Amino acid sequence: MNWSELTRLSQDEVIAWAELQPWSQAMAECQQDAQWHAEGDVWTHTKMVCQQLRQLDEWASLDSSDRQLLLLTALFHDAAKPATTIFDPESGHLRSPHHAVRGEHLVRNVLRQLDCPLDHRERVCSLVRYHGRPAFLVERDDPAGEVIRMSWLSNNRLLYLFALADTRGRKTTSDSRPEENLLYWKLVAEENECLDRPYSFATDHARYLYFKQPEPNLLYVPHEDFACSVTMMCGLPGSGKDTWLAKYHPDLPVVSLDEIRKEFNIDPTDDQGRVIQTATERCRQHLRSGTSFAFNATNLLRQTRSRWTGLFADYNAQIHLVYLEPPLSVLLRQNRNREAAVPESVIQKLAAKVEPPTWLEGHTVTLSTAK
């Protein structure tokens, strides 16, 4: 099965395909706490949610792309519960901590294997990761800030519609998920004009700083006088980062971790302390002089990127994140043609952990399959 074949299936056929996959079979063997899921195992709940999607009043008005996004979200939203479910002796209940985060990685890897288009895949991933947020908005200290943040990470209308189906697709003895709470999500998003689109900030810099400040102010419009700009490349080995820079920014000086390793004859499996120290100092030299440059490394994890973007922001640089991910077959072929090819087993392990950059991390963000 590939993405093209999957998109030609009816909704019932997609569910039938999913039922044969190992991740759904694991769900069928995973029981849930009866207080919140008296219907039983995770796969039973998943199929109930799929049924509830089609009973939503808004379902008929959605386009085929949004229907597909919601169906895939339903299939994968609890797919990581088998890997995360534990018994909590203090409460006497089954819990599945961080299953949404683990689910994001699971669905990304499944859809990558199917050659799902990058943009569509990441929209599904964001819905899976944040699918539980609407139910708990009333508990947030800053409800408006929550929906504004989510408007740049996902789609508030689809999160709301999925939350309705998720709530209705279960049997529960608890009243902890009243639909009024979900309606509150929709109302707050509408009030801030970000139900169907990202919240409109005055500038990209205003957005960037809003998400970085401990006490953000929506009314603050910062003065823009950047010292320089940094183009931060992100992507798996063999994704074409060097080629992209040579094509679109041939004149930019580049700080490259691979080149520094080559310069000092340091293997990627060796201690990287000297590599990171050297890269940091070279970045600082460009930043101090106000010279725009590119920073080229895999930069696959948010935590790793944040250390570098924090450095760039300290020097008042404008930050452009570029994430490249061609189809996996193309990436593996390009890697084999590299001077220093990375073992494919290593690439597969890295791919399983990758976190593409989001709009909370930079002034501009590009996700591309292009070289």
Automatic annotation (TrEMBL):
<protein>
    <submittedName>
        <fullName>HD domain protein</fullName>
    </submittedName>
</protein>
<dbReference type="InterPro" id="IPR027417">
    <property type="entry name" value="P-loop_NTPase"/>
</dbReference>
<dbReference type="InterPro" id="IPR050124">
    <property type="entry name" value="tRNA_CCA-adding_enzyme"/>
</dbReference>
<dbReference type="InterPro" id="IPR003607">
    <property type="entry name" value="HD/PDEase_dom"/>
</dbReference>
<keyword id="KW-0547">Nucleotide-binding</keyword>
<dbReference type="GO" id="GO:0000166">
    <property type="term" value="F:nucleotide binding"/>
</dbReference>
<dbReference type="InterPro" id="IPR006674">
    <property type="entry name" value="HD_domain"/>
</dbReference>
<dbReference type="Pfam" id="PF01966">
    <property type="entry name" value="HD"/>
</dbReference>
<dbReference type="Pfam" id="PF13671">
    <property type="entry name" value="AAA_33"/>
</dbReference>
<feature type="domain" description="HD">
    <location>
        <begin position="42"/>
        <end position="135"/>
    </location>
</feature>
